[in-house]
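Troubleshooting entry. The earlier prediction with zinc ion gave an output that would not parse, so I re-checked the input for stray whitespace and re-submitted. Clean input:
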Amino acid sequence: MGRIIRLSVTVCCLFAFVAFPVACGGDKKEEVPVEKAKQVSKAKIEHTPEAKQVSNAKTENAPEAKHVSKAKPSPDKAVAMLKAGNTRFIEGISNHPHINLGRLIQSGKESQGDHAYATVITCSDSRVPVELIFDAGVMDIFVVRVAGNVCDVDEIGSIEYGLAHVNTPVLVVLGHTQCGAVTAVTHAIHGTGHALERNIPPLVDNIAPAVRRAISKYPELLGDSIIPNAIEENVWQGIEDLFMNSPATRNLVKSGSVKVVGAIYDVGTGKIEWLPDAKVDYIFKTVEANPARAMKAMASEGH
Ligand SMILES: [Zn+2]
């Protein structure tokens, strides 16, 4: 019996050590009744800074008010980190940071909201391995992946989580060359498409306005030669859809807490082309002047 209790205390202490190494005291073994040990653990949990952060957040409605992470880089610095990571990747001098056992242990103990420095939405394409192309590791990037990097309800909800709760100072909407989703929509619009499985049309319907806009802007580009332009337009479409449907994102951009950038990854070279900030600003201002934009930032009570 005594052995069982000691074992339980050891397990509890192991848990406490992972969560609260200072409180547990490393190697120090103390015979504590199991129930008391549980109470101590619970009390510690309630007084961690993270728990305080959550309870503070509950009392504040504005999403930008939760943006209180102390260790985060500025939006411009975060963009610079991503750019430097991609440069290392294409030059073959990646640092491969944050992929060791120590980082995993840290990930289990600490909040990603204090570490992740970017939210990235990109395509599901296997040629776009997000952490690798930015030379990043565990707990560095909050990633949303969906075929065609479309920004529809689920993706926008994920982005809002990445920006307002994981506190990432930058969002990258990342398209890529040779995108199959954009190609399929282009073929459908050109009347050269083929039958699609039942759930694909409602997934890729967000891409159609981008392809149509590319075709009308560059009528001289026939057949598949329009696809690279359609891929860029699809990035702008994603940013517009996000701004139109996410007042929380607009508020974070307005407050300067978050920067939104568009980019295109070249699957053949690994190089990221960073699209102009001025176009993002233009889309933002256009959406702000659009009476059809969503206005209510927060979900109703009970969600
Ligand atoms: Zn794709």
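This one parsed fine. Residues 68-288 form a domain with the Beta-carbonic Anhydrase; Chain A fold (CATH 3.40.1050.10).
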